[in-house]
Amino acid sequence: MGLIFTPKHQKLVNQCYPTGRTPDKKPKSSETSYLLYYVNSRRTKLEKVSTYLVKKSTADLNHRRIGNITVTMELMNKIVCHCRENLNVFVKDFLHIMIKTLSNNNVNNDIGVLERIEETLSSICRNLDGALCNGDAEFIDLFKTFFNSYLPTVTERVHDSNLVLKGCTDISVVSNLAMNPQGSELLSEAAELALKSFQDRNPTYKIRSLDNTEQVINRRLTRTQTHALGLDDLPEDTDWAVRALQAFFNTSETDKLSLAIRVLLKILLKTPNKELLEFICNGIPVHLRYTVILIFIRNLSDENGDAVTILKLVSSLLVSEVSIIGLSVLDVMRVLLNMQSANGSSREICHQCSLTIADLNKKTYYKDQTSDMFLEVLSRLKDDKTKENRAIFEEDLQRLLESTTNATLSLDLFFDLTPFTDSYMKLFQLVSNSVSGAFTISKLFSLIDSMSSVNAQQHLMSEAFAKFKSITLLSGLRHYLFTAATPSSAYYIYHAEAARFLGLEDYNSQTSHKKAISELFSRDDLLNFYSDMGTNKYSEKGKRILLSKEPMLSTTDLISNASPEQQQQQQHAANPNDVPGIDNQLTYPEVTPTKPYDARSLKTLRYTTPKVRDLKNLNGNSAGNPSVNNLLRASQSVKSHITNITFLLSELDSDANELKIQDPDEEEIALERSEIARSQTVRLSTIEGKGSKRLSVPIKVTPETDEFTDAQEEVEAPSTRGKLFKV
Fold it and tell me: How buried is residue 519: exposed, middle or buried, by Cβ count under 10 Å (0-12/13-18/19+)?
């Protein structure tokens, strides 16, 4: 009778269990399929099925039916996979069943049961969502209880490391578990187990290997590098330890990655191994690898042992073949500089910070990185006046000089850094080939003049000619022409280098002779070397310097290869309001006209067409006739309309005998007459005036008189309507 009144969900569950007491049972396939259809189509039945499975598994555990427990675990796994949308309905019951099974000493040593438990756990972890992990405290407690039972049972009862690593991998795939405080503890514990298991299986990553860090740091990286073996290079099915590490580190979930990196730091502080660090970092996505350095730097403490170890690990990673992008170099550098300021008494920490700063500059992360790092050290040197910290920052500057190879510094930054270092030559080699201004290059010669060592002067002068070439030649010529009052070693070094740069043997001989008799070059002496374009292509520019009276010269004149006429044309093209041949600062004399003029009278001036005689005089006597030159210059002026009018008034006043200006009264009469008829002169002047918007220059007006008479009779125009015309 009991079977007749058994609920349907219990019947369907019971029908899935095969008969017998063998431990390797499997659920019946057809009955299992119908059960899955039943629970999938009726959500209300899911809770009943999970509750009945809890009751049945308890009875099976009490009677030590290991085969039935195995079938129960497989049924649970299939239900999770087919009803993942409703996982929150039955997942707590399933966790209760697995916890009871792990705590039962009669079955928790059976490898088959534990494997089925792990499979069910894997299905649950892959289908968990963030809302269930973060919003249900009861579920988190059950989840944590289960893992606290699973990991010790698998480790101590069956001693199967693969099951441990599989469980760690299952935990790592749960999304957003790191956002929960209890879940983050589980992740940290699982990551630590995975790292320790990997070290046990690969003993080379378990030994201390930071002793040869100095040799690695001193090795300069090249552009072509061989790719070291990393976590991302190994296939997923090689080893469960590798798969577990890939699940923790090869992820874009930053919370989980940060937890895993902190666990990695904890392991490396116990057994520092730079190979393990590089191996793990190669498995992290490229755009997130910088977080390793940031987390390591943030965990720096005042404890001498940990701080030095962390700094060495960071240095080994910075100079390794691991590709890192997006690293905030200045933020890391400021943390290191602050660490030095706070631990000035610890020589070991300060020294290792200097090495790490130098290693930070061995890879270029953005364009102006090197200049920014030198500027940061320079600001510390200027702000901190204590003798102890100044010595520390000077060591940082020296380390940066040794680690930098690309010439990216500006000449201004070179001058700012020279008071804090004696390595002028090394620092100057890092200066770029660009010059910001003539005054900046002049400061270079002042620095050379102030140097006490002749060899240093010779070396720096040679480097300046090699780096800036013609700019050094011309700016040095100007500098020593206007500043050298007495003979000096730098003076003769410059002229010797200039002679070598120009390839002039007589110039070099004259330099040696002048140096022997302690005599300076005169302008005429130097003009001899800058007078022939065939032997000296800089003769035109040098001649302008030697003939000039002003000590200043623009950088454009030093760099440009154009002639003065070409430079003037380029300047006029850049500023069309400037008139060629007229100085922009030219001031015109104040004009006092002999009789009043107004805008109306000037506007109505009428000129006749130039005659052939005037054009011949204009073409033949323009050079010797000042008035003609002035007229031409005025006609070409485009400075402004006001300047043109003022200049024309001046010319009209000076050449009044050649012009006849109409009186305003006569102009009004002429305007009244023009309403009746126009004279030929007015028509010609109108045609000439339409071609240009500027005022024409009067050449000479021929007076003509037009007499007009009123019409005495009306003129009748015959109508042409209806007539045909022949052409």
Answer: exposed
* Count of other CB atoms within 10 angstroms of residue 225: 10
Rounded to whole angstroms, what are the CA distances from 254 to 285, 292, 356?
11, 11, 25
User: What is this structure's pTM?
Assistant: 0.71
525, with CB counted inside 10 A (0-12, 13-18, 19+), is middle
87 within 8 A of 127, measured Cβ to Cβ: yes
Residues 529/520, Cβ–Cβ less than 8 Å = no
DSSP, residue by residue, 616-676: HHHHHSTTT-HHHHHHHHHHH--S-HHHHHHHHHHHHHHTGGG--PPPHHHHHHHHHHHTT
Q: Which domain holds residue 655?
A: 599-689
User: What are the pLDDT digits (tens) for 144-171?
Assistant: 999 999 988 998 888 888 999 999 999 9
Q: In degrees rounded to 5, what are phi and psi of residue 149?
A: -95, -35
Last residue of a domain, one of 144, 159, 174: 159
User: pLDDT by residue (tens digit) across 481-515?
Assistant: 988 889 999 999 999 999 999 999 999 999 999 99
Residue 536: partners with Cβ closer than 8 Å, 6 or more residues away: 502, 504, 529, 530, 542
- When mean pLDDT is compared across 334-348, 442-456, 488-502, 640-654, the lowest value belongs to 640-654
Longest pairwise C-alpha distance within the chain: 148
> What is the crossing angle of helices 254-270 and 240-249, to 10°?
120
Is residue 309 pLDDT above 90, yes or no? yes
Q: What is the DSSP string of 467-482?
A: HHTHHHHHHHHHHHHH
Question: What is the predicted pLDDT for the residue at 156?
Answer: 86
Is the same domain home to 532 and 438? yes
pLDDT at 593: 42
Q: Is residue 87 in some structural domain? A: yes
Is residue 174 scored above 80 in pLDDT? yes
Number of domains making up the chain = 3
CA dist., res. 527 & res. 521, Å (int): 10
Per-position b or e across 267-286, b if 16+ CB within 10 A of its CB:
bbeeebbbbbbbbbbbbbee
- Helix, strand, coil share of the chain (percent; to 5): 65, 0, 35
Task: Calculate what percentage of the chain has a pLDDT beyond 90.
Answer: 50
Which conformational region is residue 239 in: left (phi greater than 0), alpha (psi within -120 to 50 degrees), or beta? beta
Question: Per the structure block, which two tokens stand in for 568?
Answer: 């003037």
CA distance 340 to 353: 7
What distance in Å separates the CA atoms of residue 546 and residue 539, rounded to the nearest whole number?
Answer: 10
Beta bridge partners of 431: 409
Amino acid sitting at position 556: T
Is 242 part of any domain?
no
Asked if residue 622 and residue 530 are part of one domain, the reply reads no
Side chain identity at residue 262, one-letter code: R
